Amino acid sequence: MEIMMAIIAGFLFSAATYLILSKSLLRIIIGTGLLSHGTHLLLLTMGGLGGNKPPVVGEGVTVADYADPLPQALILTAIVIAFGVTAFALVLAYRTYQEIGTDNMDHMKGRGEID
Amino acid sequence: MKLINLVVLPIIVPLLIGTVLLLFRNNLTVQRIGGIVGALLTLVISVVLLTKVYTDGIQVVTLGSWDAPFGISLVSDMLSVLLVTSSSLITFVVLWYSVYALGEERERFFFYPAVLFMLSGINGAFTTGDIFNLFVFFEVFLMASYVLIALGGKRIQLRESMKYIIVNIVAAALFVITIGYIYSVAGTLNMADLSVKLGEIGSMGVISTIAIMFLVVFGIKAGIFPLYFWLPGAYYAPPLPVLALFGALLTKVGIYSIARVYTLIFTTDVAFTHDILMMLAIATIIFGSIGALAYMDIKKIIIYNIVIAVGVILFGFAAFNTTAVTGATLYLVHDMLVKALLFLMIGVLILITGKTNLREMGGLIRHYPTLGWTYLVAVFALAGIPPLSGFAGKILIIQGGLEGGFVWQSIVVAASTMVVLLSAIRIFIYAFWGSEKPFQVPPKKTYSQYMAPVLVLFALAVGYGLFIEFLTPYFLEAGRQLMDPSFYVNAVLGGNN
User: Fold this and answer.
1) d(CA B132, CA B139)
2) Is the separation of the CB atoms in B239 and B156 below 8 Å?
3) pLDDT at position B3, please?
4) Is the Cβ–Cβ distance between B99 and B229 less than 8 Å?
5) How far is A36 from chain B (nearest CA, A)?
6) Nearby residues of B442 by Cβ (< 8 Å), 6 or more positions away
7) Which among A10, B76, B233, B249 has the fewest CB atoms less than 10 Å away?
8) Contact at 8 Å (CB) between B257 and B221?
9) A35 contacts chain B (CB < 8 A)
10) What number of helices (H) and strands (E) belong to chain B?
11) Inter-chain CB proximity B183 and A71 less than 8 Å
12) Cβ contact (<8 Å) for B170 and A85?
C-alpha cells in the first residue's frame, strides 16, 4: 500500500511540476494545488499507514501496533494553510488579470521600471 | 509576579492587537495608534524576556502542558530572543515612519493589522521549538507579507506579488515534504528531541539529504545563491516602508532557520553539510556583489546588499566555531538595524528627488546636510568601519573563519566589505555631491516627519556599534548556547518545566 501511495504522490508531483512550468497563471495555481495534494499524501505515507489499527495507545494496544495519528493532524493543518493560500492566490490572479490584461507569465516579465 | 508564559507574549500580543484593529478599519487614528502601540508593547515585552533569558537561562513553555517531545514547545534562547527584540524594534520604527510615508489609501486597507500579524509570525518562527510549528509560523508571516506586497494594487506590485506567492507556495510544499522525511526517519518533530535522536543515529546518507533539503527550503526564504532569483524583483515592488520591513526581517527568518537546524539538529556530518553551506555562502556574497555594483537604481543597490549580508552571516554559521557563530549573531542584529535604516533613508531620498535612478540626482548635500551625513555614517556602519556596528561582527566572523582554516573564503568575506562600501557610497557621491540636478522641494514639515524615525533608528544603529561592549555578554551567551546544543536540549527535555 505504501508503494501505491508513493507512486500516486509521485504522479501528483510530476503533474504539478508540468502545470507550474506552463505559462498560464491559472494552470500554475492549479499546479500548486496538486503539489500540495501530493505533499499531503507523502506526509501521510511517511508516518506509516496504520490500516485499521487504533490510533491511541491504551489497554491491549502498545506503541508497537498502533496507527500514528500525528501525520493526520499535520496534514489537517497543512490542508487548511494550502486552502487559504490557494484562495488568496486565485483572487490575486484575477485582480492581476484585470489590471495587466493578461494571464500569460511571458507578458509579466519586466525590469520593474513601470510606475 | 511570576511570568512563566512570557515566551508566548511576543507572539500573542501583536496577534491580538492586530485582530482588534481589523474591527476599526475606517478609523485611521485608531489604526495608527494601535499599530504603533502594539509594536511598542511587543518591544517592551521582548526586552523583559531578553533580560530574563540572560539571567535565568533558556526559557521554555510547553503549550497546554503537554510534555516536551509530544506537545509543542516554545523556546527562547539567546539567539531567538535577540532576534525577537530587534524585529519588534524595527517594526516599531517602520510603523512610525509609515504613518507619514505610506499614504492614506494603503493605510486604510489593513496595513497595520497585516504588519502586526507579520510580526507575530516572525516572532513565532524565532521562538518555536517544533519544526512543524516553524512551518505554520512561516505561513503566518508569509500570508501577511502577501497582503503587504500586493497592498495598493499597482501594476508592478500585482505582477511581482504573483511570482513571490508562487515561489513561496512551492517552497512551502518542499518544507512539508522535508518535514515528512525527517518525521519518517526520526519519529519526532521537536527540535531538541530531533537533536538527540539524530545524534544517536549518527552520520547517515538520508540525514545529510534532509539537511540539504532544509537548506533549500530556508535558502529560498533567506535568499542564498542560487535561490535568491525572486528577491530583487519582488522586493522592488512594494512601497518603501514595506520594503524596509521585508529587507530587514523576512530574509533574516530564513537565516535564523538555517542557523537553528545547522547548529542544533544537523551536526553529525559537518564536513558535508556545512561545506555546502560555506560554498553557497561565498557564492551568495560574490553574486550579491555583482548585483550591487551593476545597478544605478538606489533601491536595487540596497536590495543586492541584503544578498551580500546573507552570505556573510551564513559564512559565520558555516564556519561553525564559537567565534564565528558569535560574530554571525552580532552581524545578524547589526544587519537588521542598518538595512532598515538605509531603506528608510532611501525613502527620504525618493521623497526629495521623486526618482530612484542615481543619474538623475545630484548636489543634495547643500540642501539636506543632515540626511547626507547620517547616510554616510550609515554606509560606514554597513561596511563595518570601526567603531561602527558592522565591525565587531565582521571581524569575529573573519577571525572564526580563519580559526576554522577557511582562508580564501575569509578573504572573500573581507573583500566583500569593499564592494559594500563602494556600492553604497556611490549613492552618496551621485546623490549628494556633484552638480545640482532638479529636485522637488518637499514641504519642510513632511521632511522632518520622515526624518524623526530615521534619526531615532540612526541613533540606535550607531549606539549598537559604540556601546557594543555592554551588549557583548548577550552575544557571547548566544554563541555559547548555539555551539553546545545540550543547553537547548536540557532546557526543553530535561528542564524544570
Assistant:
1) 11
2) no
3) 63
4) no
5) 6
6) B351, B352
7) A10
8) yes
9) yes
10) 21, 2
11) yes
12) no
pLDDT in tens, B71-101: 889 999 999 999 999 999 999 999 999 999 8
Q: Which residues pair with A99 in a beta bridge?
A: none
B residues 194-233 closer than 8 Å to A (CB): 233
Comparing A36-45, A100-109, B365-374, B485-494, the range with the smallest average pLDDT is: A100-109
Q: Are B158 and A96 an interchain contact pair (Cβ–Cβ within 8 Å)? A: yes
Query: How many other β-carbons are positioned within 10 Å of the β-carbon of residue B95?
Result: 26
Q: Give the pLDDT score at B496.
A: 43
pTM of the predicted model as reported, rounded to 2 decimal places: 0.93
Run of H or E residues at A9: helix A2-20
For residue B357, what are the β-bridge partners?
Answer: B297
Strands (DSSP E) found in B442-488: none
Residue A12: pLDDT over 90:
yes
Residue B158 contacts A where some CB pair is shorter than 8 Å: yes
What's the pLDDT band for B22 if we cut at 50, 70, 90? Answer: very high
Query: Average pLDDT, stretch B373-390?
Result: 90
Interface with A, mutate which of B133, B138, B155 (most A CBs under 10 A): B155
Spell out which residues of chain B touch residue A88, defining contact as CB-CB under 8 Å. 143, 146, 165
CA distance A46 to chain B (A): 5
B139 touches chain A (CB under 8 A): yes
Start-end of H helices in B223-321? 231-236, 240-245, 251-260, 270-294, 298-319
Which amino acid does the sequence have at A79? Answer: I
- Letter for the amino acid at B470? F
The DSSP code for B60 is E
Grid cell 516602508 in the structure block, residue: B241
Residues in chain A closer than 8 A to B176 (CB atoms): 36, 39-40, 43, 74, 78
